[in-house]
Amino acid sequence: MSIKIYLPLNYYYIKKPTNLYGQVQINEDNVVSYYVLEASDLEFSDKAINHEKGNLRFLGSILNEDFNADQNQFLKFNMRLCFTYNSSQANITLVYLGITPEYLKHIKVILYDKQMYVIDELYGLLKVLEGSPIGLKLNIHLNNFFLDCFKYHIELWSTFLDFIEPLVRQVFLAIGMIGCLGFTFQIALLVDLISVIGLHSHCFYIYTKVLYNVERRGLSVLWQVVRGNRYNILKGRTESHNYMNRQLYLATIFFSAILFLLPTTLVYYIVFAALKALTFATLSVFDFLRRKLMYLPIEVCIKRLLRGCHEINCIQIKDVSHHERAFLMHKQQKINVTVYKITTL
């Protein structure tokens, strides 16, 4: 067994009593992961600590080293983690774990920036869908299957982002320096960044859309079977048909199963379709702004503001004479050229 503690980087240097809230996950490979997502000030007393903050669990606290808490006090306040701080050290120190592995090297404290905000919000969204969101009674087994799949997908995507973060940071820094003088270039870069960060939400939308379409199509076909009809491909119409009893029995079972699973799939499809629509709307707004800025006469407006507008009372046109007549040759024909000088009065 191993322990992983995901702690925000700014919490690693806190110098005041603080409560930590987040999520706990136990993977199949016997890895316990603590995700610290939020923190609040702590006034430690003998009273019970508030163990809920929205949809987050109470994980533990950050205490002063002079507090001298023992294991009984940790158990009393149901702490899973406890850190301490002092004036001599810049960072906090882990002093207590509710679950202790066999070897200390199996304990890992992973610091992350708040750039994982999108991933944290997705975890929060899945937490809302767990159970009965807005009073809807979802299928427990299918709901747990969706949650496990999506959480595993988010964990993979989080690991991938952590892996490519140094490379992406260098690439975007170089590209940003190239386009430092172009605002539309920066907007296009922001659109690409949002697309990369929101790729997993797009994948969730595709998964739920495909599954919803399969179930909807299956219900429409099985509905014709339980009614004793079938579609005649040659004649292009629906006709009655005498099915065998076992065929009707299997069709009824599958129809009932898909019918009761459809609401759960529909809820996930609506949620991730709305998330996809929100992402698409955001990207469309940035793209619209970028295109408008490309054709907006900003340079002309700046020149007008700097130089001002001049009123012209009169325009004088003078013919500028040459010693030799100027002409152009076009298709072996001479075209006379006259030069005029325009002045304003």
UniProtKB/TrEMBL annotation:
Pfam families: Gpi1. Keywords: Membrane, Transmembrane, Transmembrane helix. Signal peptide: none annotated. InterPro entries: PigQ/GPI1 (IPR007720). The chain crosses the membrane at residues 171-199, 243-262. One of its GO terms (cellular component) is endoplasmic reticulum. GO terms for biological process: GPI anchor biosynthetic process. This is GD24833. The gene is Dsim\GD24833.
